[in-house]
Amino acid sequence: MPEKNTASPGAAKKTKKKAWRRDRAGKEQQLIAAFDRVLQRHGVQGVGVNEVVKEAGVGKWLLYEYFGGLQGLAAAWARNTDFLPTDEEIGGVDAEAYAEQSTAEQLAGNYQRFARALRRRPRTLEILANELTQPTPLTRTLEGVRSEYGRGLTRFFTRPEEYASDEAVALQVLLYAAVNYLALRTRTSPRYLHLALDTEEDWAAIDRMIELVAHRVLDEDTDS
């Protein structure tokens, strides 16, 4: 006669949790991937805890244990996917050639490449639009990751003392805002003054404007 299983349901649940914990990295990626799929299907306004854990095929407790909640998962998703441009996209040139450029050339190139990378990310632009028109705790979390990313662009600086000048700081704030705004309009309202933001020709014109402003502000500051 087969022996009766005397293990309690609570013990079985604990055993299952231990098994999940043995592959924490894999389960974190499973949740991030599920978040990504739900986001693709429903947009940022349609992402919820229940939808994500159902998509991932895991218990709700796991999401809270690993990420602290949906906002923590959103932040992990933003840092581990193509939500934001990569260092390779922003750097654009080899390190030695980049170091030889003037600060104005470096800064202009950074924002030109940032604009191109952002325009290649329609989902990022959609989330940015939601931040402005339908803000939620989730969009505010993603906005925080973007702001952290923007501050982190200082890692590209080869002459920190020049980038720390009042002129360089002011220019970076304005260029970051301008690039985000113009890239956002590409999707929804591409006509801006005399520019057609859905054409490469007019983005080339914007590239030239970025260069002009960077050199006028920073070269004059260097010469003074």
Task: Describe the protein in words.
The protein has helices at residues 9-22, 24-42, 49-56, 60-67, 70-80, 87-91, 95-100, 103-119, 122-133, 137-152, 160-163, 166-188, 200-223; strands at residues 191-192, 195-196. The protein is an all-alpha fold. It folds into 2 domains: 9-80, Arc Repressor Mutant, subunit A, CATH 1.10.10.60; 87-223, no CATH class. Strands 1-2 form a two-stranded antiparallel sheet. It starts with 8 loop residues before the first helix and ends with a helix.
Whole-number total of structural domains: 2
Counting helices, strands and paired strands, the structural category is mainly alpha
Helix content: over 70%
- What is the 3D form? globular
Average pLDDT score? 87
The end-to-end span amounts to 95 Å
Treating each run of at least 4 consecutive H or I residues as one helix, how many helices?
A: 13
Q: Could you tell me the number of beta strands?
A: 2
Percent in strands: under 5%
Given as residue ranges, the uncertain stretches (5+ residues, pLDDT < 50) are none
Strand order of the largest sheet: 1-2
Largest sheet: 2 strands, antiparallel
Secondary-structure element series: HHHHHHHHHHHHEEH
Q: Compute the gyration radius: what is it? A: 23 Å
